[in-house]
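URGENT: need a sanity check before tomorrow's submission.

F., can you look over the Endonuclease/exonuclease/phosphatase domain-containing protein record below? I want to be sure the sequence and structure line up before it goes out.
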Amino acid sequence: MVLRIGDLYVVNAYILPVNARSMRKYHLWQDLTPWATFKNLVHELITTGVQFTIHGDLNARVGPYAPNLPWHSPCIADDIACNARGTELLDLCQRYGLFLVNGSIDIPGTHSGMTYFHRRNPDFHGEQSTVDYTIASYSARRRVQCMDILPRDFISNHEAVQTVLRVQRTMAASALPVQMHLQRSDLQAPRETEFDEWMQEMLADAMDEDDLASFTYGTSFPSISRTKQVYVDGSCLRQASTHAASGAGIFWGPNNPANKGVRVPGRL
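Structure tokens as predicted:
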């Protein structure tokens, strides 16, 4: 997912693990592997010249290593393992000049720790790793104000990663980058799936028409308002003179407490 927030493009990415069962069946739902699609996205962002950051679970482990770039700061990491995709991620960062925020000594915050824990035994060191990252393009690296890997809440087996970015909220029309074409035109999600139809049939058997409409679209309230008639008028004394005075009247009906006569403030 790619969002444009002000003058910054923010990418949220999830790449399946290499050994995931669904990873081996990617060809059933797209032509490119998820990792190849991610690399193509990075290439297009770089080619377009926009400033961008990447956030998400890449299922890559880079260990304590940083991209081999002269301007990149050293990194500190609790996860010292580097897997094959981690090596590919480092190569990708080096090729396109990307800044790896995790563990960077130049970025404030606590972000050198593990981001994944085994749900059943989170203290088992063999099931801990760093697979969630924040990455910035070279031109956007100064926008990263701080990053923190938040404490475990034991609800998910991934830790929340909080990154503070500096964004310019407005841009001149002439400064907007060329529109990218990142959406595949051949992918069209059906408006209603078989599951949707099955749910509608099941609900229709359990509810009458009014209850079903209320459940599907929310409660509706009949209009209880009636047409109301109100009279307003204004006048001005001594027009076009330095002593002009004006006022206005609001009339809802005889003896109505909402009736008002007011003087228009200010001087002409």
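My own read: The longest strand covers residues 8-14. Residues 30 and 185 are 12 Å apart (CA to CA). If you see anything odd, call me.
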